[in-house]
């Protein structure tokens, strides 16, 4: 690890970028799966 996350966020801020949220892919896949299940119940 050559950089800490703090350094990465600092560099992003310096370049005018803002990180609003961070999620891992597992959460997104879980949300997609739950959403599909809920859609199936509504049909």
From TrEMBL:
<protein>
    <submittedName>
        <fullName>ABC transporter</fullName>
    </submittedName>
</protein>
């Amino acid at each position: 690890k050559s950089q800490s996350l703090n350094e990465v966020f600092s560099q992003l801020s310096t370049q005018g970028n803002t990180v609003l949220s961070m999620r891992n892919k597992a959460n997104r896949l879980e949300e997609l799966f739950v959403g599909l299940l809920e859609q199936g119940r509504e049909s």
